[in-house]
TrEMBL record:
SMART domains: FBD (SM00579). PANTHER family: EMB|CAB62440.1-RELATED, F-BOX/RNI SUPERFAMILY PROTEIN-RELATED. The lineage of its organism: Eukaryota, Viridiplantae, Streptophyta, Embryophyta, Tracheophyta. This is F-box domain-containing protein. Residues 10-58 form the F-box domain. CDD domains: F-box_AtFBL13-like. Pfam families: F-box, FBD, LRR_At5g56370. It comes from the Eukaryota.
Amino acid sequence: MQRQRISSPTDTISTLPDEILCRILSFLTTKESVATTVLSKRWIHLWYHVPVLHFPNITINTVESNFRFNESVYSVLTSRDTATVTASHFIDNFHLDIQYSNSYLAYNLGFPNITKWINLIVQRKLKFLHFNLRVPLPYNFVGYPYLPKLPVSIFTCRTLVNLNLRWFRVEGFSFSSNEFRFPSLKTLHLRFVKFSEVRDFMLLLAGCPILEDLQASHIYFFCAEDSITVQEFKRLTLPKLIRADVSQCWCSCYMAKALSTSVSLCIETSWLYTKDYRVYKANQLKPPCDNIPVFHNLTHLKLHNNWDLVVQVLHHCPKLQNLQLYQGLYEAMLNEEDDEENWVEPKLVPQCLSSYLRTCTIQHLSGPKFELMLAKYILKNARLLQTMTIWTTRELPEIERKLSPCPKASATCQLSFMDNL
């Protein structure tokens, strides 16, 4: 009998074109990408062509781990510099997500090196920069010394398309200079960022003419804005904006007009009040609000806190289909003590309620009469409403008993109750 010959396994993947292999490597972390060099001679130089440097979930606990990580990044950067292939000198995407166990490791040993890396990569036609820094706060934290200074070279990189930053202070750069402009930036995500003054933040946004996606959370300022800055901020426009999520932005002026082209929007309604809101609140008067623009394109809206402006905002969202009302647990507890018994049901129903609204979610409903009346008002007038979901901090049977029997404009509306406790 003739013995069947067993063929050796074929390395099919190595026969693929370089472009496809580099595309595959771009989905790996840089550490994993470099590790493929041991597979065969074919793979030794492939990772040089990968225009992505990806360092996710890096944890630095000791001086030794900090040294090892610094050395590995320097090795990657210098290897690409000394490579003979032209493509290796371009970096499209740099992703660094790093957590330090203490502030000494971060600011004395780690961050000086990170600044050097950023200064290098922004010269390589960088398009995507994700820079997430996490450092525990010392017990005597006062805000300024422990927010590291962002390398200002980032603001000279005109090829950026996506910029994601967390935990920095911005200073030492003039946004009004000719050096600054992000002509290609479409996505800007900022979290825990402190600017020298409000005008810097405003000019940063103004320098992004095609911005489509904006997230700004916990934005702080060293100096309060002046009256001129307030008026400039109110006139700011972002004509290409589609998605915006702006919360905990600590300035008294708000860029409502700049957000007016959004399709999806998350804001705090308190910013629509005038600067003297607290005075009106203390004297139990209805506070005036700044001019609210018409959000012609808006279909998804999430409002944080101060629900007394909800109906007024809805009048400016003619095509709204999805509404979320949210308040923190602290605000919910305050509302339990500060019930607005004299809420008057508006006579004019917003267009979106009668013709467009499909879903409504109310989170942390605490049970005051005003909140219940608002929920009833939406149910009564939303003709196309499919679902209303209510998350409550009160006993579920109590809220369900008060809302379930109320009239509904939509015969198919499903009313659901969830427990926040």
